[in-house]
Design a protein that fits this description.
heterodimer, A: alpha+beta, 33% helix, B: alpha/beta, Rossmann fold, 2 domains, six-stranded mixed sheet
Chain lengths: 200, 480
């Protein structure tokens, strides 16, 4: 769920068409036409990533005339499948997976099950990864992976690079090597298990 | 009672309220006083900075001399005159005491590299948290762009182009611009700060998994590895062949709650890490434990940083939010950390018995001056919050990371009306102000009395009970 109140606006007199904005936009709402960035206004979530990374300060954020809310809903009959996908990715369906938008795992899973098969489509459908754009790409990739989906990165994009390890992937050799140094992988895995299974 | 310490001034930034709108500071309220941290804990070391009565230039000379002295035994022979060097920095250092000491350390590191190696190709790469242009602001404010030379000082962000790094837990990703030199120098600070995240385990290594890392890696840290294993992300990257091949040395501002104790430099980051782990526990363990002993109070946020990062007595507000649980004890889950935040269900009930409520003694929060640019809705949801001035409330609501912050906060027209409401509603006159007061803390007179009364007992408890536990959990029994 995400309230969208801001809109990116490009000043074509400043824009050089360098494409940085297209490479960081989490919902692919910007294209370059005739060497100028063009924002697809309805698709823009107002995250400000383009404005923050534009080297020429050609983009400003303005208040939307038409604020809206992104929220992905699903039929109750799908809840079992949604919850199962969350737990397969080692999330509790109701836990938060995006700290900015407070998107929960079940909303992401429902969006994935509905056919949103890339992080960019999931972000557009749920609003996840449209706040800081930093901390929540792994939950999206984990849920896509649990659904058997191997997404393609946007061509030339910096939106994301790849799925990484979780506490479940830490091999015994690493756990033994660093035992006693403060990295409590076993304890953390117990908490993850407890959270994942809560409500079962 | 001492007069209040002058708070850190408001700073012009795109992430915060315009300084001219910050018309009254909490330290100006009637009945406020201050306590110096070295009065509370006399065993804290003497600081070299700030220097009372000294000019900015004289203080810079102190940091310059300390940095040069720390670098005397550092091997720079791997850097020849034809090599390039990136001095890697982070935004955090610029938030300490106005950032002047950190900026001077960066200048001196540059100068010494040039003097000793002959290379002219020394750049500054300054990472950020979530305010992606924040270090650009600091670079300009401290004129580091002019000092390093045209195009050589730049801010880098976690959504910039990445570079894969093969580690012992698989591929992780760094920011390409951090590593686009032959050698890197890790220039940071040692204050404990986000103990809820790093748990004082590998504190000195953390930026390799954070400020210097791509979003993919930071998401690994905050979503994948868990509340005690998270900082292994940083170790995995630092241990990689790729990073080892580029790492030259590290320099750290050695911080205590009272200020800068010194500068440390070493070619061996783990040797420095062990020393800083010990110092961090010694310097910060007592003040954070003392925060956990305080009774019901009103908290003031009044510093140019996002909500959890506003400072008092050298520690951040997030430390106070979780002070009801010993964050240094690795058996616990801090009441505030992103894993904790994640582990509440849709009806705001914890999904794990390890999740406990935030510090219940924070009865009300007066957000007089604190920035957006960091997800902070957790704080207004879990503690009654009043935001001073509609302009500041609107600023929070415009922030893409805080779209829900104001759903659980009230707005006051002025600081005075906010405080009247807080005093009346909470029934306490005890106030703790997070306003960046150097070397001390601004509080109400009643809270000053409580701090002094409890400090001695806390000091004994830490020395006798907690420090041995903390050291043992980190494999540092030899220091007990």
């Amino acid at each position: 769920m995400r309230k969208v109140t801001q809109l990116a606006v490009v000043d074509p007199a400043i824009c050089t068409g360098c494409r940085i904005c297209t490479r960081v936009c989490p919902v692919l709402a910007i294209t370059v036409v005739d060497r100028k960035a063009v924002v697809n206004n309805p698709a823009c979530t107002g995250c400000g990533g383009c404005e923050q990374r534009c080297s020429f300060r050609a983009i400003t954020m303005i208040e939307r005339d038409d604020p809206y809310e992104i929220r992905f809903t699903w039929d109750e009959s799908q809840t079992e499948a949604v919850n199962a996908l969350c737990r397969k990715a080692n999330f509790n369906p109701e836990q938060i997976v995006c700290y900015c938008t407070e998107t929960r795992a079940n909303e992401v899973a429902a969006a994935v099950l509905a056919g949103n098969d890339t992080p960019e489509k999931v972000s557009a459908a749920t609003g996840i990864r449209t706040g800081c754009k930093i901390e929540c790409v792994q939950p999206i990739l984990r849920i896509l992976d649990a659904a058997g989906i191997k997404p393609e990165r946007p061509e030339g994009g910096y939106q994301w690079y790849g799925l990484t390890a979780t506490v479940y992937d830490i091999p015994d050799s690493i756990r033994e090597k660093y035992a006693g140094s403060g990295f409590d992988f076993d304890g953390d895995r117990e908490i993850f298990d407890e959270v994942r299974d809560a409500g079962l | 009672m001492r007069p209040p310490i002058t708070p850190a001034p408001p700073r012009p930034s795109q992430y915060g309220l315009a300084p001219e709108l910050v018309t009254k500071r909490m330290a100006e309220l009637p009945g406020m006083t201050s306590v110096l941290v070295r009065e509370l804990f006399p065993d804290l070391p003497e600081v070299i900075y700030p220097v009372p009565g000294a000019s900015r230039e004289e203080e810079a000379a102190v940091i310059d001399a300390a940095t040069r002295a720390s670098l005397e035994d550092v091997d720079m022979s791997m850097i020849t005159s034809d090599k390039s060097v990136n001095i890697c920095a982070s935004h955090h250092g610029f938030t300490l005491l106005g950032g002047y000491a950190y900026a001077q350390m960066l200048r001196t590191i540059r100068d010494v590299i040039v003097e000793r190696t002959g290379t002219q190709n020394v750049r500054l790469r300054a990472g950020v948290g979530m305010r992606l242009r924040e270090t650009e602001e600091y670079i300009k404010a401290h004129k580091l762009d002019e000092y390093f030379g045209k195009g050589k000082a730049r801010g880098v962000a976690p959504i910039d182009e990445g570079i894969p790094i093969e580690t012992e837990i698989g591929t992780l990703y760094g920011i390409k611009a951090i590593y686009d030199a032959d050698f890197i120098v890790h220039a940071h600070n040692s204050d404990v700060r986000e103990v809820h995240f790093h748990r004082q385990v590998d504190r000195a290594v953390k930026p390799f998994g954070m400020s210097y890392a791509r979003a993919d890696t930071r998401s690994t840290y905050h979503q994948n590895l868990g509340p005690r294993g998270a900082n292994f992300t940083a170790r995995a990257i630092f241990n990689s062949d790729f990073v080892k091949s580029k790492f030259a040395f590290a320099s750290f501002l050695d911080m205590s709650p009272a200020g800068v104790v010194g500068v440390m430099s070493d070619n061996d980051l783990y040797r420095m890490n062990e020393a800083l782990t010990l110092k961090g526990l010694q310097y910060y363990g007592k003040i954070i434990t003392l925060f956990g002993e305080l009774s019901d109070c009103i908290v003031g946020l009044d510093f140019p940083c996002p909500v959890p990062y506003v400072f008092a007595s050298g520690v951040i507000y997030a430390n106070f939010v979780g002070a009801n649980v010993d964050a240094f004890d690795l058996r616990t889950l801090p009441p505030y950390t992103w894993y904790t935040e994640a582990f509440y269900d849709a009806s705001n009930q914890p999904l794990s018995k390890a999740v406990v409520e935030v510090n219940p003694h924070i009865r009300m929060v007066i957000h007089n001056y604190a920035w957006g640019g960091y997800p902070s809705s957790f704080f207004s949801r879990h503690t009654p919050t009043i935001v001073v001035k509609r302009e500041q409330a609107d600023m929070m609501s415009r922030c893409p990371m805080n779209v829900y912050y104001m759903e659980n906060a009230l707005i006051a027209d002025s600081l005075d009306t906010a405080m009247q409401f807080a005093y009346k509603t909470t029934g306490t006159d005890k106030v703790v102000i997070f306003d960046g007061a150097a070397s001390g803390i601004n509080v109400s007179e009643s809270m000053a009395v409580e701090l002094v009364e409890k400090a001695k007992l806390v000091s004994e408890k830490v020395d006798r009970e907690l420090m041995p536990l903390w050291l043992k959990q980190r494999g540092l029994e030899k220091y007990i």
